[in-house]
Amino acid sequence: MSKEEMFKELSDAIVSCKQDLVLAVIEKAKSEGIAAPEIIEKGLAAGMNEVGIMFERGKLFLPHVMMASGAMEAGVKMLEDDMPTDAPSDKLGVIVNGTVEGDVHDIGKSIVSTMLQSSGFEVHDIGRDVPLQDFIAKIKETDANMVGMSALMTTTMPGQKEIIEMLKEQGLREKVKVMVGGAPATQAWADKIGADCYAENASEAVAKAKELLV
Ligand code: B12
After folding, report:
1. 53 with 127, same domain?
2. How many structural domains comprise the chain?
3. Contacts of 80 (CB under 8 A, 6+ apart)
């Protein structure tokens, strides 16, 4: 089976919520030497994106999305220990990452955290539906030099802007780089709210964090 066929099988298994099949295909992909980040992005996330499109078109409903999310999470968990450990001995920077208040979507945010961590950043993942002031508190506590904010809904995106305002009020904006992400975010949105960068996916997040912090 080619790499592409394997990614397609994995993506289809997510769409049909077949968790056992997801885990079996991951095992197969690992034994073929395919790297964990590639399995996540081209197999699992591709399937979840497909689920998103079908949900938007009314072709499937929320319980289906929840089951597919469960299969996706189990797959990511299985790959956590296989993330590359090419991290340098000195940490590249300290990043607080979370999903903003009112928003429970955390699959993509968690992938971003895992990839940043395995690339050598010290990551404090503060979870989902995080009160905005908790971002600021964690930044202070960890002396972070970057904050990552995920928002998957147009209704919760303004939280990203508010956190930037809070950073300014606390005199922290100069010290803390701001990275935004999540399906509705764009470069134009990042520019509009004064973030330092936007990343479309986890590998881009790693590249942009390195650009800004290293
Ligand atoms: C899975 C899912 C759920 C799951 C979430 C499970 C979980 N633990 O996360 C469940 C079923 C719980 C759920 C619930 C709801 N959902 Co929902 N959900 C989705 C769905 C289908 C997929 C999201 C996903 O996981 N994608 C896969 C991951 C890998 O991709 P990703 O999240 O985009 O992340 C990547 C990038 O965006 C980026 N990234 C992500 N975060 C960050 C952070 C940083 C710092 C950076 C740099 C990059 C980055 O990198 C990631 C990896 O490549 C989307 C559809 C979509 N098109 O996104 C709807 C969607 C986001 N949901 C939606 C809605 C409306 C809801 C509900 C309100 C449904 C309801 N009617 O009850 C609730 C929300 C409740 C709440 N208060 O939050 C809407 C939002 C619409 C809007 N207003 O904008 C969407 C767009 C679907 C739709 N068209 O209706 N949902």
Report:
1. no
2. 2
3. 114
